[in-house]
Amino acid sequence: MKNIGSCCCGGTVIEITDEPALNGICNCNNCKKRTGSAFGISAYFHQDKFQLLKNTTITYEFQGEHGKQVRHFCGKCGTTIFWYVEIFKGLVGVAGGCFTDNPLPLPTFNAMMENQYSWIKFSESMNKPLTAQDVENA
After folding, report:
1. In terms of CB atoms within 10 Å, which of 35, 58, 68, 98 comes out highest?
2. Which residues contact 10 (CB under 8 A, 6 or more apart)?
3. In what order do the strands lie in the sheet with 57-64?
4. pLDDT at position 133, please?
5. pTM score
6. Is residue 49 a contact partner of residue 31, using CB atoms and an 8 Å limit?
7. What is the pLDDT of residue 106?
8. Residue of 79, 81, 27, 77 lying closest to 53 (CA atoms)
């Protein structure tokens, strides 16, 4: 599978050459703020299957709930495109919405469900919590 993703202005373009190792919904406050929405769609790919084709990103580093995080967002339009999280070793996180021509498969986990807004209802198959075993197997 080959998939191209980009920011809103097209200044940052990425290429993925595999299915996501992890693909899910995240309800943490960080993802809510990152997306300006009620949750984030986070797809994690093996770093060797990720390529930055066009780069205008600037980075923001911080200590998050899951260790050190480095977020890359477009320096022109501000769109979050990809990030690295300490606990997801060897993986790069990609914002699910940046793939508009070839959408991601159905999410397989729902992280931080305790932070999910009560008015959001997902199908039963999307209500599986992310476990340490999921991360180890990715």
Report:
1. 98
2. 54
3. 57-64, 67-74, 80-85, 91-95, 40-46, 22-26, 109-111
4. 80
5. 0.88
6. no
7. 86
8. 81
Enumerate residue ranges in the chain where pLDDT < 50. Answer: none
Which pLDDT does position 33 carry in this prediction?
87
Residue 138, pLDDT score: 75
What is the radius of gyration, based on Cα positions, of the chain?
Answer: 14
Q: What is the pLDDT of residue 19?
A: 93
Cα 44 to Cα 6, 19, 54, 71: the distances in Å are 16, 9, 20, 13
Q: What is the pLDDT of residue 136?
A: 77
pLDDT of 21: 94
pLDDT at 11: 95
| One-letter amino acid for residue 129 of the chain | P
Q: Hey, which bits of the chain come out as E strands? A: 3-6, 13-16, 22-26, 40-46, 50-54, 57-64, 67-74, 80-85, 91-95, 109-111
Joined tokens for residue 20: 């996501």
* Residue ranges covered by each domain of the chain: 3-137
Residue 12 near residue 18 (C-beta atoms within 8 A): no
Q: Identify the CA nearest to 37 among candidates 103, 117, 112.
A: 117
